Amino acid sequence: MTNPMHGVFAVPTTPYTEDGDQNLDALSSRIEEVLASGVTGLLGLGATGEALALSAVERESQIKTIVSAVDGRAHVVIGCMAYTPAEMSAQISNAADWGADAVMVTPPFYGGLEPEAVIAALRPVLTASELPVMVYNNPHSTGTDLLPDHVASLQDTGRLWSVKETSGAATRFRELCSRLGEDTEVFVGADGIALEGFAQGASGWVAASAWLLPEHCQKLWAAADSGDWAGAVDLWRTLGHALGLIEGDSAFISLIKQALSRTGREQGPVRPPLPTAGSEALATLLDAIADLERKHTA
Questions:
Q1: Which superfamily does 7-226 belong to?
Q2: What positions constitute the catalytic site (predicted)?
Q3: 48 marked as binding residue
Q4: 136 in catalytic set
Q5: 85 preceded by cis ω (within 30°)?
Q6: What is the pLDDT of residues 55-105, one digit of tens each?
Q7: 16 counts as catalytic
């Protein structure tokens, strides 16, 4: 791939069959549809993809399926989330062997580590990485908030491609862009504040919602990137409502899967212990999507 690694990266779900196995045919079919929207790439095996519920064999088969389905038409980023640096590095090595273009790592979760301890853990991972690395700042899930100075301290590894930011701090995107400069991309990681992130200078969006609404998400990014802020705000009035319903629900993965299944793109259930979205939440989301499509034909 030679095109820049910024813009919209859609995050696939993991479809399952009735027997509970991965439905890789359904995954490949949806990849074709999402790529047609013009997204820059896919970020597989993130939280939306239920990565932590997959076995090593399932991880391998999914990565190979994504790489094969994309076939060089977009960038493929693979989540390599693990507790120990050694396991992160092993996952990165496998992702490189299986054809990924880049990887994403998080701070070791559950430990509630101080930022300095996280940086000490991530430094050898980035230094040894065969691929460009996105660092995912997700304080809600990891218990650690990496500030701009913490992220910037990893730039000297030569492997820090980007940061995915989801802290929700009001001015964080602007601060990251200012501190990291042009050498490191800053991605919005929380769908409900996408437009705010773009306005502060974020150069891309890792969007779970783009697996469900790729055309609209791509259109929002294109408008903001071109400076068409009036168009972006107009679209955001309805798109933002739908995205907020998804992101604000603890069963957001199930919501995305059920909404896709309603359109004939069967995704199957989520794996326990993830929660299943209720019928009322699904109906509210489907109404919001219908309103979006009435007002903004993709």
A1: Aldolase class I (3.20.20.70)
A2: 136, 164
A3: yes
A4: yes
A5: no
A6: 999 999 999 999 999 999 999 999 999 999 999 999 999 999 999 999 999
A7: no
106 is annotated as contributing to ligand binding: no
- CB 49, CB 12: distance < 8 Å: yes
Euclidean distance between CA atoms 234 and 206, whole angstroms: 21
> Which amino acid is residue 254, in one-letter code?
S
Exactly one of 64, 83, 164, 295 is catalytic; name it: 164
What Rg, from alpha-carbon coordinates, does the chain have? 18
The three-state DSSP-derived secondary structure of 150-190 is: HHHCCHHHCCEEEEEECCCCCCHHHHHHHHHHHHCEEEECC
User: Which residue(s) pair with 295 in the sheet?
Assistant: none
Token reading at 53: 């519920």
Q: Report phi then psi at 219, rounded to 5.
A: -65, -40
pLDDT digits (tens, 9 = 90+) for 94-151: 999 999 999 999 999 877 899 999 999 999 999 999 999 999 999 999 999 999 999 9
pLDDT at 20: 93
Pure H helices in 24-164: 24-35, 56-70, 85-97, 115-128, 139-142, 148-152
What is the rounded (10 degree) CA torsion for 146, 150, 153, 158? 10
Q: What are the domain boundaries of the chain?
A: 7-226
d(CA 3, CA 35): 14
SS (H, E, C) 251-276: CHHHHHHHHHHCCCCCCCCCCCCCCC
